[in-house]
Amino acid sequence: MWDNVRRACGIYPEKRISCLRKNGQEVRNISDMVDVLAEAFASICSASNYTEPFLTHKNRTERIKLRFQTTKHKSYNTDLTILELHTALSVLKHTSPGPDEVTYSMLQHLSEHSLLNILYMFNRIWKEHVFPDCWKHAFIIPIPKPGKDPQDPLNYRPIALTSCMCKLFER
Fold first, then answer.
1. Which domain holds residue 94?
2. In Å, what is the CA distance from 1 to each residue of 4, 5, 9, 10, 63?
3. How far apart are CA 48 and CA 58, in angstroms?
């Protein structure tokens, strides 16, 4: 019963990875386990996993220059409004914060003056095409795949915890 109560409240037990295997060798040092997981996640996302037709399409498409200068009258080129910001804040699901540790709850409890400052920042980001560097970082949490060997680093899903400010801006 208490497990169900904890889950309903969003309280989950912390499960640490005690050991991983790399090339048949056990890895127990936390720093080394982080490296092993990083290598596994990088190998999964590597271009060597793509099909030849996809790689050809990807390479051709990435060479095309994007045109950012479009007509100002398009709705997606107008300034964001305070109503849009309030709407985005009202539909947010409470997820874990990223490296900046700003939570949705913090954002939802800001004063109108503070929200106007955030709106000003969002509009500058949109107009100037300059994305904050701190929003380009995330915490990567390895989640074990159910029913799989937890010592195999390929049996984890990487979940990225990104900035709530960034996710709000994307809305």
1. 1-170
2. 5, 6, 13, 14, 56
3. 13
**Angle at 77 (CA atoms; ends 162, 95), nearest 5 degrees:** 20
H helical segments located in the chain: 2-8, 30-44, 52-62, 82-90, 104-108, 112-128, 164-170
Rounding to the nearest 10 degrees, give the CA dihedral for residues 60, 54, 133, 131.
60
Contact in structure between 139 and 37 (CB atoms under 8 Å): no
Structure-block tokens of residue 130: 């300059």
Give, as one character, the DSSP assignment of residue 148.
S
- Pairing type for strands 139-144 and 156-161 reads antiparallel
| 8-state DSSP, 74 | S
Render pLDDT for 49-66 as a digit per residue (tens, 0 to 9).
Answer: 889 999 999 999 999 887
Residue-wise pLDDT tens digits, 6-38: 555 555 566 778 889 998 899 999 999 999 999
Q: How many domains does the chain have?
A: 1
